[in-house]
Amino acid sequence: MGEERNHRGASRRWLTSELDSSLRRLDVDHVDLYQVHRWDPTTTDEETLSALTDLQRSGKIRYFGSSTFPAYRIVEGQWAARRHNLGRYVTEQLNYSILNRGAETDVLPVTENHGLGVLVWSPLSSGWLSGAVRAGREVTTHRSSVIPQRFDLDVPANRAKLDVVEQVAKVAADAGLTMIQLALGFVTAHPGVTSAIIGPRTMDHLESQLAAADTVLSADVLDALDAIVAPGVDLSPEEKIDTRPSITDATLRRR
After folding, report:
1. Domain residue ranges in the chain
2. pTM, entire model
3. pLDDT tens, position by position, 7-26
4. In whole angstroms, what is the distance from residue 34 CA to residue 52 CA?
5. Which keywords does this Swiss-Prot/TrEMBL entry list (predicted)?
6. pLDDT digits (tens, 9 = 90+) for 48-72
7. Cβ(65)–Cβ(33) below 8 Å
8. DSSP label of 132
C-alpha cells in the first residue's frame, strides 16, 4: 500500500487502520469477509487472529479468512485459534487452475479437513485458458501487457504451456464447450472448492464467464485433463507468489 516498511503485513495496528480506511472509502460500516492477503512471517498468528477476532466482535467484519497461505500455515492458524480461544479463518483464497494444480497436493486436503470455504483466484491462469492465447496468434490479453515475460514464447516454460493449452482446447471442442467453460468447470468440479473468482474487464468477458456457471464436467472430460496435466502439478508456479521465506532469505538457512 506504500513505500513505508510498516504499510504492509498482518499486525494488529495495520489490519485495524487499513480496515477503517477501507470502510471510509467504501462508505459502509462493515465488510462481510476480510481476508489476510498472504501470510506475514513477521507477525505471530496470535496477534493477527486476536486483532481479527476483536474486529469481528466490534461488528466491523462478519467473517475473516486467509489468502494464498501454504498448507502448513493454514494448519498453524487453525491450531493457534483453538489454543488461544480466538476466532478462526473460515476461508482460504487460493490459486488453482488446469495449469496450476499444486493446491491438490496439500492445500485443498487441509482446507477440506478443517472445513474452510475455498475461493479460487485466477482459474483462467492469467488468460492462458480464456481462449485468447493460441498457437499462431498474437497474444493480446491484458495481463500480457502488464507482465509480458509470462507470455514470452521464447521462454521454454511458456512454449510448454502453449502446447498444453492446445491440448486443452481440443478437449473443450470435443466436449462442445468453450475454453472458459472448461476452465471454470474444472475448478468448481473439485469437492473442496466453494467458488471461482472471475475478473471480467468487458461485458463480453462477463457474459462468456457467466456461461460457465452451470457447467458440469463429465468424468471422461476430467480424465482427459488429468492425462494432459497430472494432478498436483504446477505449470505456472511463478503466478502464485507464495514462495516460503526459508527459500528466498538465505539468513534463515545459516547459523
Report:
1. 127-192+201-255
2. 0.89
3. 889 999 999 999 999 999 99
4. 9
5. Oxidoreductase
6. 999 999 999 999 999 999 999 999 9
7. yes
8. -
